[in-house]
Design goal:
The chain has a single domain, classed as Beta Polymerase, domain 2, CATH 3.30.460. The chain has 7 helices and 7 strands, in the order H-E-H-E-H-E-H-H-E-E-E-E-H-H. The chain has a 5-stranded mixed sheet. Strands 6-7 form a two-stranded antiparallel ribbon. Helix 1 crosses helix 3, helix 2 runs parallel beside helix 7 and helix 6 runs antiparallel to helix 7. The protein starts with a helix and ends with a helix.
Length: 153
């Protein structure tokens, strides 16, 4: 399972992470379909470099001709001047294998909830934090996701 491959690679690299986006919405219990795996990582250059190496170990390539150090160093400018929200990776052999590293998320400690998938502990973004992130994004699907999460008991 691609999601578990990502989690295993990030953990092997020692990267603090949380699954976010549509996968996290679904794993919290709301109905949501998605293809790409959105990931938030702690805000440090070493996390960005380690994440890049972990994803490359899975055969994934950056969609942008930039390095982890550049993304981390110019993160604010990319967000402000280029409207970049995520640093995307893909598998050139299988385009359905997509990972977006959310660069608009800027915390050193990520609030998570741990769930088990096939006996593997997986960190997903805590529901209040995910709702906050979705509301801040403001796109129609994100607002619908936030509403669906808020309706969960």
């Amino acid at each position: 399972m691609f999601l578990l491959d990502i989690v295993t690679a990030l953990e092997k690299a020692g990267i603090a992470y949380a699954i976010a986006g549509g996968h996290a919405v679904a794993l919290h219990g709301a109905v949501r379909g998605t293809v790409d795996v959105d990931v938030v990582i702690s805000l440090s250059e070493s996390s960005y470099v380690g994440c890049e190496n972990a994803l490359k170990s899975l055969g994934l390539e950056s969609k942008l001709p930039v390095t982890a150090k550049e993304v981390f160093q110019f993160r604010r400018e990319y967000i402000r001047d280029r409207n970049l929200r995520a640093w995307s990776f893909y598998d050139p052999r299988d385009p359905s294998r997509l990972v977006d590293i959310v660069i608009t998320y800027g915390k050193r400690v990520i609030p998570t909830k741990v769930i088990r998938i096939q006996r593997k502990a997986v960190h997903i973004l805590a529901k209040p934090e995910l709702i906050k992130m979705k509301r801040q994004a403001g796109r129609p699907q994100d607002l619908e996701d936030a509403r669906a999460l808020e309706e969960l008991k």
